[in-house]
Amino acid sequence: MLQKSKAFSGFSVDDIKRAKIFYQDTLGLTVKDNPMGLLELHIKGGNAILVYPKPNHTPATFTILNFPVSDIEKTVVALTEKGVVFEQYKDLNTDEKGISHNEGPLIAWFKDPAGNILSVIQIDK
Fold first, then answer.
1. What distance in Å separates the CA atoms of residue 65 and residue 8, rounded to the nearest whole number?
2. Residue 104 domain boundaries
3. What's the structural domain count of the chain?
4. Which of 112, 20, 114, 16 minimizes the C-alpha distance to 58?
5. Phi and psi dihedrals of 65, rounded to 5?
6. What pairing do the DSSP bridges indicate for beta strands 49-53 and 10-13?
7. Parallel, antiparallel, or unpaired: how do β-strands 63-69 and 117-122 relate?
8. For this UniProt entry, which segments traverse the membrane (predicted)?
9. Which among 62, 72, 80, 66 has a CA at the least distance from the CA of 124?
10. Which residues contact 8 (CB under 8 A, 6 or more apart)?
11. What is the DSSP string of 22-66?
């Protein structure tokens, strides 16, 4: 029934202006204002992701966006230089930069200004 639907995702933040600055200036994404007071994050190969303000926002306790990258070390260093702080998880074997070296691909988690969890994940070249 929905197999031909071009689905899209969305998530909430507590401060739409701070979110716009973070996603546009820090992460370098194309961000557009939506007439309904929302933000549209435009990512390669997909539909826009809606970001909406929510006064009683509670950060997601799971990863809401994963960004595949070809060189996680380079990406983590570049984002750290822009002020992004990577999470440290002992049970996920993160190194001093926040990169997890468990089985599977290398991955590092960080939070947006609203506390939502995002990641960069290394893909095979």
1. 12
2. 10-122
3. 1
4. 114
5. -140, 135
6. parallel
7. parallel
8. none
9. 72
10. 46, 47, 48, 49, 50
11. IIIIIS--EEEE-TTS-EEEE-TTSPPEEEEE-TT----SSEEEE
Question: Phi first, then psi: what are they for 6, rounded to 5°?
Answer: -90, 80
Torsion angle of the four alpha carbons 47, 115, 71, 68, in this order, in degrees rounded to the nearest 10: -30
∠ Cα 45 77 43 (to 5°): 15
Q: Output the domain CATH number for residue 116.
A: 3.10.180.10
pLDDT in tens, 32-52: 998 888 999 998 877 899 999
Report residue 16: phi and psi, to 5°.
-65, -35
Per-residue pLDDT of the chain (125 residues; tens, 9 = 90+): 888 888 889 999 999 999 999 999 999 999 999 888 899 999 887 789 999 999 999 999 999 999 999 999 999 999 999 999 999 998 888 999 999 998 889 999 999 999 999 999 999 75
Tokens for 41? 């994050």
